[in-house]
Amino acid sequence: MLATQRRERILDEVRVHGAVRVSDLVVALDVSDMTVRRDIAELARDGLVRRVHGGAVAPDTPARSTDEPGFEAKRTWSSAEKSAIARAAIADVEPGQSLALSAGTTTWLLATLIAADPALRPLTVVTNGLRVADALHGVPDVEVVLTGGTRTPSDALVGPVADATLHHLRVDRAFLGVHGLDADGATTPNLAEAATDRALVRCAAATTVLADHTKWGTVGLARICGLDEIDTLVVDSGLAPDARAHLADAVARLVLADPTATPAPPGEQP
């Protein structure tokens, strides 16, 4: 069976049943586990399915409270929306500030924008995100402080070491990426990461949460903070009107980013 035929079979299973397991596909397609996983990865890159532990689900299936995808998988989801959110968030970055950036794909995009814009420097950036630290490594006039800790599948450093580091720091603003957002606040599937994210919020004079519209209604296992603890929430314009209305009342400041807007050159962010 050709690869295109296998992937069409996988898509058919997902369309009919909403989900499919790797172990079932190995038997049905008479191929190796590795071949099935490669096919699912290819379909996920095209946005046709969402990878989960042990299989795949329809792309619009809400994430379970304990799902924790890796960084490479997440960076392909809602990429235009995340880029727009990062561009909008950088308006709150000023030279001379100390910032805390959590681990995540949207905060990583924010870090790449900071790295590209000399007008924002000097800066001190505290982060528990390995990808964020890599994006800022070697950038002139940007001091990067890594928290240390235990590495998660999403390349976050978490746990007692990270939490203890943040306990002794104070920054001007924290930029926080989240797994889910609902009326009760921001959440993540990882208990240890939630504790470290709470430490990031506590060490900051102000907190900006970055969340694309697909995060609304997704609930992770562990709560990070309530909506009343968010000073600025940056979401994209794909957020439903009722959710916009609710969040506009619940957070101090709601910013809607437009994914269709032409990016401004470095140093000319709105």
Overall tally of structural domains:
2
In the CATH scheme, what's the topology name of the largest domain? Rossmann fold
Name the helicity range: 25-40%
Taking pLDDT < 50 over at least 5 consecutive residues as the criterion, the unreliable ranges are none
- SS content category: alpha/beta
CA(first)-CA(last) distance = 52 Å
Largest sheet: 7 strands, parallel
- Average pLDDT number: 88
Order of helices and strands: HEHHEEHHEHEHEEEHEEEHEEEHE
- CATH architecture level-2 label of the largest domain: 3-Layer(aba) Sandwich
**How many alpha or pi helices?**
10
What is Rg? 19 Å
Strand order of the largest sheet: 6-5-4-9-12-14-15
Shape: globular
Strand content: 15-25%
| CATH class category label of the largest domain | Alpha Beta
* β-strand number: 15
